[in-house]
Amino acid sequence: MGELEAQLVASFGPAFERNRPLATLTSFRIGGPADLFVIANTEQQLSAALAAADQHDVPVFCLGAGTNLLVSDRGIRGLVITLGPGFAYSNIEGNRVVAGAALQFRTLVERVVDKGLAGLEFAEGIPGTVGGGLVMNAGAFGGEIARVVSAVHGITAAGEQRRLSSDEIGFSYRRTVLPRGFVITRVEFTLEPGDRHALWTRIQTIRAQRAARQPGDYPNAGSVFKNPPGDFAARLLEKSGVKGMRIGAAAFSCRHANFIINLGGARAEDVRRLMDLARDKVRLATGILLEPEVKLVGEW
Ligand SMILES: Cc1cc2nc3c(=O)[nH]c(=O)nc-3n(C[C@H](O)[C@H](O)[C@H](O)COP(=O)(O)OP(=O)(O)OC[C@H]3O[C@@H](n4cnc5c(N)ncnc54)[C@H](O)[C@@H]3O)c2cc1C
Q1: pTM higher than the cut 0.70
Q2: I want to staple 100 with a disulfide (CB 3.0 to 4.6 A). Which of 36, 89, 228, 268 is the partner?
Q3: How many A from CA of 189 to the centre of ligand 1?
Q4: What HEC string does 190-209 produce?
């Protein structure tokens, strides 16, 4: 790792850090350090960092806004790359939209709605970046990103640029299948013309529904489990007596049964044990094995 570190110091300067604590870069406010950490602002920088890590056999993890992650208390071994402001742009021409992977999804929603473009309203209030939203095939209120994406651009593990059309992305419910180590740099969307006033009204409705449902007062990572086919994880968790259950400083929210909240100083291990306990309880009570939506990353 020493040679890689020297290369990263030379090309990233102050945008390189060693043993960078990750808790403050996640919405859960949980997680140990990344061995090596860089903020990439250009495709050239990103491509060089990926190729160098690949040559030295150092694992790479790409961090978005950290809103769907449980980073282990021991942190992430290898290199963590996050994309900086250089990737937080959008271009809108007619109904074709190109958004940089680091742009906040909520900013993109506001920009397209302001132009009278329909198709992304469902994403109002989903935190995180365009890149993270694409990888998670984020969705809500009956919509999902897969339906409006036409292509994705990114850099492969070997540092090469590549464009994938929407049918090469392997979209399914909260899941995509991308080439190993692929870092998304920008996403192309095709939207529909819509009525600006009606779109803003829809946005206000979604905002109000989210505010009523979600526990906004404690750090969390959104829904912990995916909905199983034909049912809702929150309903199953509530039925199985999980609501309000607590380990250490992590607890299932009393407001939304599928949210785990950090009451202050929770450890990743607390959250993981709580997830395991909840899965066991639901399986015993209903026979259904819930699948995590939150991604567990790092060294466990
Ligand atoms: C309060 C709250 C509400 C939420 N509501 C919803 C909801 O309604 N619907 C929903 O689907 N989700 C929801 N989420 C979960 C989360 O916001 C989404 O999954 C979001 O799209 C994740 O984006 P991110 O940038 O935070 O990605 P991260 O959490 O940082 O990463 C998620 C995955 O994407 C990968 N990734 C990120 N950026 C890139 C990139 N540029 N290239 C390659 N890989 C990348 C990461 O490696 C990781 O595997 C919610 C979360 C919170 C905290």
Answers
A1: yes
A2: 89
A3: 18
A4: ECEECCHHHHHHHHHHHHHH
